[in-house]
Amino acid sequence: MMRDVSPVKGNHGVHITLFLLTLLTTTAAGALQRGNNPLSDPLSLVSGLPFSLTLMTILGVHEMGHYLTSHRHRVPATLPYFIPAPSIIGTFGALIRMKGVIWDRRTLLDIGVSGPLAGFLVALPALAIGFLFSEVLPATGEETVGFVLGDSLIVALTGKLILGNLPHDATVVLHPVAFAGWIGLFVTSLNLLPVGQLDGGHIAKAMFPVRFDLVARIIHLSLIAMGIIFWEGWLVWALVLIFIGVGHPPVLMDHIELDPGRRKLGFIALAIFVLTFVPAPFRLV
User: Fold this and answer.
1) Dihedral of CA 82/83/86/91: which sign?
2) Is residue 2 assigned to a domain?
3) Rounded mean pLDDT of 61-76?
4) What percentage of the chain reaches a pLDDT higher than 70?
5) pLDDT at 236
6) I need a labelling partner for 240 at 20 to 30 A (CA). Which of 40, 152, 170, 192 fits?
7) Between the CA of residue 6 and those of 3, 13, 120, 262, what are the distances in Å?
């Protein structure tokens, strides 16, 4: 049986323009994080490069993992589209567009797992290196107002290995590279949610085709509950999933089983999801 392997036609100018715009917005966000205002002092943009280059590398490696794996399986895909945004990190992430048929669960798992795994392998070293240059502030006893990031299991473990045992009331001011690594790990966990056509949805559909719909509904309801209890952003994610779909379309040759190696890879992705997930990622104090 022949497969349609014609490439997805894309305008390289669009990809390049979006990449450059996102590089600019993430660099500006990095400069603002350092207390600089690029509008009044354009040269201060340089201070945002450690954050932007690290984050852009993580996002790019993630999407190229999908891109290269898609083409290895002869599934047409575009180059990454980076999405600039006026936000604290300067971007809404990146994505590729696939056009074609996912023929079997092995292909579905390979494409789903490749991006998060590649991104994780870049984000974790970035976090570790950034921790080395982060500042630890002792408790002053005075109340401060600030932005606090939640700790996933992998962030807490990495911080303990590098910074040692810190007093519970100490404050770690993350270096921009560490912050970019934290964002990269958080993005990894979001993509690995086993619902819809997120990366985690692809993986879960490949591993548990019969039980996937039940798992996806439970995860979707859990997002709503976590949005009420922990962080309002989960409600936004739950709403987005209603529009893009909680379920997942079937593959054509669903009867082809996963081999043991791919099942292990799927469980590794599940472990990464558990290690990177943060119930309350952001809060103000």
Assistant:
1) negative
2) no
3) 94
4) 93
5) 93
6) 152
7) 9, 20, 30, 27
The per-residue pLDDT for range 208-267, each reduced to its tens digit, is 998 999 999 999 999 999 999 999 999 999 999 998 889 888 888 888 899 999 999 999
As given in the structure block, the two tokens for residue 81 are 């589209």
Q: What is the number of structural domains in the chain?
A: 1
Tokens, residue 1 = 């049986």
Residue with tokens 């590089």: 23
* Interacting residues of 113 by C-beta distance below 8 A, sequence separation 6+: 199, 202, 203, 265, 266, 268, 269
Answer whether residue 87 is part of any domain.
Answer: yes
Q: How many CA atoms lie within 13 A of 133 on its CB side?
A: 13
Q: Is residue 6 part of a domain?
A: no
Residue 7 has pLDDT above 80, yes or no: no
| Tens-place pLDDT, residues 126-151 | 999 999 999 988 766 555 556 789 99
Closest CA to 62 of 148, 188, 177: 188
Domain of 139 in residue numbering reads as 12-284
- The pair of structure tokens assigned to 54 is 């690290």
SS3 state at 259: coil
Q: Tokens 């690594």 appear where? A: 181
Name beta bridge partners: 71. none
Answer yes or no: are the C-beta atoms of 84 and 91 closer than 8 Å.
yes
Question: In degrees, to the nearest 5, what angle opens at C-alpha 49 toward C-alphas 25 and 52?
Answer: 50
Question: Is 189's pLDDT higher than 80?
Answer: yes
